Amino acid sequence: MFVYADNAATTRVLPKVLEAMLPYFTEQYGNPSSTYPLGQEASRALIGSRETIAGLLGCRPGEITFTSGGSEADNQILRTAAAWGRKHGRTHLISSTIEHHAILHTLEALQAEGFTVTLLPVNREGQVEPAALEQALTPETALVSIMAANNETGAIQPIARLAALAHARGALFHTDAVQVLGHIPLTLKDTDIDFLSGSAHKFHGPKGVGILFARRGIELESLIFGGEQERGKRAGTENVPGIVGMAAALEEAIRNLEANASRMAAARDALEQQLLTLPGTRVHSGQVPRLPGHLNMAFDGVPAEALLPVLGMAGICVSAGSACASGSPEPSHVLLALGCTPEEARCSLRFSLGDDITLEQVHFIVETVTREVARLRKLHQQA
């Protein structure tokens, strides 16, 4: 049996999404900037996709910029907020210790350019406490950037409360919603969110295309210079097939959101309950609202680097944390922020189930993990 349980890393492209994309590779392949009919067909596809996404997110089409993915959107948003801050005498940036490296590394670069950065701690369950943000905010704060839900633990953050606190002190607010879009309800209408970033391949769209939302009235800083695409703020010929696929994928995900979330949460809970019967197991962020398919567990005495290959050979695809940090020898910065020891962090696995998960697959995961954890612990004792 094969089980793909690493949907937080990427998801398969749905047949319906691929079908929507294909004509823009082979038939309607014009450059959207061209004025002849073939190019204008592509331009209309971009306009339609932008309108679809804006409608699904509850914002204006002009507030959506297409990017290559979440990392580019995060970079451009932080650079934009930093430039806005300099103009307004605000050079303080706030984020958290559990953010994606696209945020953390950009903040490091901005810090080297003279900005002050505060990284808020999280509680044992992996949530940012509003009181911690309230204490950190100053008249110099330009931006607060807190992810909507964590990519490793699935812990959902109190975004509405955090955004309101930022606005009360005159700061802008950004949320990295890469893990959230298409999986839990989210609207930008009547919120205090000024910026949002998303990535199509996390909700059954193609890789290499993403969403940047910037509230009307905020002028984006360009990262890529050249042509006048994306209102002059993101040069380069638009990825028309990818953008069309992203709109189709988000539409499908939101249409089926409630049913998919219910199915994934039931499967996740069954997996969690059965794996917790093993001695020396713990769930990270298990006492707070989580994304429906996420389960991050520690298996005492069994390093993930030993367990992952045998699970992979058995046909089970899971991870030890963020795919973007999989080449790092260091333990997960997210789990360390939760208070885990380095050893506990190294002995943790992330299961991120998809909307096509079956109970038969859950039972297969449980049987295989139970067997291999026992075997590896025995080998460790004999060593």
From TrEMBL:
<keyword id="KW-0175">Coiled coil</keyword>
<keyword id="KW-0408">Iron</keyword>
<keyword id="KW-0411">Iron-sulfur</keyword>
<dbReference type="Pfam" id="PF00266">
    <property type="entry name" value="Aminotran_5"/>
</dbReference>
<protein>
    <recommendedName>
        <fullName>cysteine desulfurase</fullName>
        <ecNumber>2.8.1.7</ecNumber>
    </recommendedName>
</protein>
<dbReference type="InterPro" id="IPR015421">
    <property type="entry name" value="PyrdxlP-dep_Trfase_major"/>
</dbReference>
<dbReference type="GO" id="GO:0046872">
    <property type="term" value="F:metal ion binding"/>
</dbReference>
<keyword id="KW-0808">Transferase</keyword>
<dbReference type="InterPro" id="IPR015424">
    <property type="entry name" value="PyrdxlP-dep_Trfase"/>
</dbReference>
<dbReference type="InterPro" id="IPR000192">
    <property type="entry name" value="Aminotrans_V_dom"/>
</dbReference>
<dbReference type="InterPro" id="IPR015422">
    <property type="entry name" value="PyrdxlP-dep_Trfase_small"/>
</dbReference>
<feature type="coiled-coil region">
    <location>
        <begin position="247"/>
        <end position="274"/>
    </location>
</feature>
<dbReference type="InterPro" id="IPR016454">
    <property type="entry name" value="Cysteine_dSase"/>
</dbReference>
<feature type="domain" description="Aminotransferase class V">
    <location>
        <begin position="3"/>
        <end position="362"/>
    </location>
</feature>
<dbReference type="GO" id="GO:0031071">
    <property type="term" value="F:cysteine desulfurase activity"/>
</dbReference>
<dbReference type="GO" id="GO:0051536">
    <property type="term" value="F:iron-sulfur cluster binding"/>
</dbReference>
<comment type="similarity">
    <text>Belongs to the class-V pyridoxal-phosphate-dependent aminotransferase family. NifS/IscS subfamily.</text>
</comment>
<dbReference type="InterPro" id="IPR020578">
    <property type="entry name" value="Aminotrans_V_PyrdxlP_BS"/>
</dbReference>
<keyword id="KW-0479">Metal-binding</keyword>
<keyword id="KW-0663">Pyridoxal phosphate</keyword>
